[in-house]
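To the structural biology subgroup,

Please find below the input and predicted structure for Peptide deformylase, which we are adding to the shared reference set this quarter. The sequence is reproduced verbatim from the submission form. If anyone notices a discrepancy with their own records, reply to this email rather than editing the shared folder directly, so we keep one authoritative version.
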Amino acid sequence: MFSILTFPNPILFQKAIDVEHIYSVTPLLNEMKTFVENSPHVLGISLPQVGVSKRAFVARFTTGTEILINPNFYILDPTPNSLPSGEGCISLPGIIGIVPRYLIIRISYLSIFGERIFREMGGMDSIIFQHEFDHLEGILFTSKTLQAF
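Predicted structure (tokenized):
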């Protein structure tokens, strides 16, 4: 079982490197996927949050829980907005904040099988993706928070 890093662990502030060999992180990513699927209040977790500074995360989208490796995204609607419910993070327990996020994005990533996936997403899925993507960039949501409570 993995441990979840919490603030102020320095790994959370490092820009992660690309995953070169998917098989090297497959067991851990599958374990993380099971964790997200069995944790009702967890919508995602990234490799940096479990101490591995590589570019992959697991996210629970409206279509199901997915593993995304070496993801990228492109902004389709340049107006940042946020959902009124705000954001929280398992690496920052007890903190919630309102964060501006792009609501419509186009994403690309590798699946666990090495297949390149392209798709558009919006709403809550877009927000979850951007939150987890920020972890790969070494950014915690508190650095983008408009209001914390």
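Summary notes: The first helix runs from residue 26 to 37. The chain has a mean pLDDT of 93.

Regards,
Lab coordination
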